[in-house]
Amino acid sequence: MSAPPRRDLAAMIVPLGRALTAAELPVLREHGLTMWAYSVLLRLDERPLRSQAALADAIGADKTRIIDVLSDLGDRGLISRTPDPADRRVRLLALTPQGRRVRDAAQAAIQLREERLLARHLTPAQRTALLDALQVLDALPAEAVSDPEP
């Protein structure tokens, strides 16, 4: 007799992702951030980006959707938008020290909530295995996920 089939990865991950996102919203509000603003702050930490279009692509947003987000973050001193010396029409987007502080505080609060969730429902070994597996999958290029053939 065979074991019952497991649920598809997306069928497990998507509802979990929605629930985790909903749990993050009050934390982000406490730090004066929207989900899009937090996504911008997380992405800009990796390296400055050359354009709004590059940033939008990196976070999976329509470039017109993040115009107001970037303006708000810039007005609040959380990001800088400076002309690119190689092309003055292009703006280099980067985190400011204040943006890094806000991002770090929000991320610490979110990850504390995540740790509490994981500790309630998983053993330490399960937590480590889950996080390790998610980091491996997260690092895959999109084409490796959409076409898993070697």
TrEMBL record:
<dbReference type="InterPro" id="IPR039422">
    <property type="entry name" value="MarR/SlyA-like"/>
</dbReference>
<dbReference type="InterPro" id="IPR036390">
    <property type="entry name" value="WH_DNA-bd_sf"/>
</dbReference>
<dbReference type="InterPro" id="IPR036388">
    <property type="entry name" value="WH-like_DNA-bd_sf"/>
</dbReference>
<dbReference type="GO" id="GO:0003700">
    <property type="term" value="F:DNA-binding transcription factor activity"/>
</dbReference>
<keyword id="KW-0238">DNA-binding</keyword>
<dbReference type="Pfam" id="PF12802">
    <property type="entry name" value="MarR_2"/>
</dbReference>
<dbReference type="InterPro" id="IPR000835">
    <property type="entry name" value="HTH_MarR-typ"/>
</dbReference>
<dbReference type="GO" id="GO:0006950">
    <property type="term" value="P:response to stress"/>
</dbReference>
<feature type="domain" description="HTH marR-type">
    <location>
        <begin position="6"/>
        <end position="139"/>
    </location>
</feature>
<dbReference type="GO" id="GO:0003677">
    <property type="term" value="F:DNA binding"/>
</dbReference>
<protein>
    <submittedName>
        <fullName>DNA-binding transcriptional regulator, MarR family</fullName>
    </submittedName>
</protein>
